[in-house]
């Protein structure tokens, strides 16, 4: 079973990053090329309830609209996202979250440990995307980043086939675990705005 604090350890820096995004940075590009900051925040807000529900083994009904058809970045989106990330981390901090199978959306059951790994990796990589786009320097612990690298190594080919990851970006073997994970996902660890 995974360390029950993985999601909490991934979430804390993400919440700090979100709280430090300035309103004039919402249209900035991110290393996640299909999203500017606003769209990436919207993506996290849109899928957050489903990822939280998967951890609680309480699937959330499929949204009526796609994430590109809704804008969840109105109002106090930073507080909303920080709260959602916290709830998701709490859900994945329970041993039952990682056991058996669960669903994100729809009827397909998947191994809960696979979904939990995806949740942790999403928090770290999208946190990195937002940090790079807004000039912040996030800090996750080395053990967590090794876990993220191992998870992404296991799922990289499948992620590419599904269109979730881009073509691998070559990264020296001596690079940090985070940089190697980013390269596997198709991100350039040296990306600058």
What does this protein look like?
With 193 residues, this protein is mainly α. The chain has one domain (6-145): dinb family like domain (Four Helix Bundle (Hemerythrin (Met), subunit A)). It has helices spanning 6-19, 37-56, 77-91, 112-133, 142-161, 177-185; strands at 101-102, 110-111. It has a two-stranded antiparallel ribbon with strand order 1-2.
Label this structure with key terms:
193 residues, mainly alpha, Four Helix Bundle (Hemerythrin (Met), subunit A), two-stranded antiparallel sheet, 6 helices, Maleyloyr_isom
Q: Kindly estimate the percentage of residues that lie in beta strands according to DSSP.
A: under 5%
- Could you give me the name of the CATH homologous superfamily? dinb family like domain
CATH structural architecture: Up-down Bundle
Count of helical regions: 6
Overall number of domains: 1
Class by alpha and beta content: mainly alpha
**Share of residues in helices:** 40-55%
Distance between the amino and carboxyl termini: 38 Å
The CATH C-level name is Mainly Alpha
Unreliable spans are none
Order of helices and strands: HHHEEHHH
Major sheet description: 2 strands, antiparallel
CATH topology: Four Helix Bundle (Hemerythrin (Met), subunit A)
Report the C-alpha radius of gyration, rounded. Answer: 16 Å
Averaging pLDDT over every residue, what do you get? 94
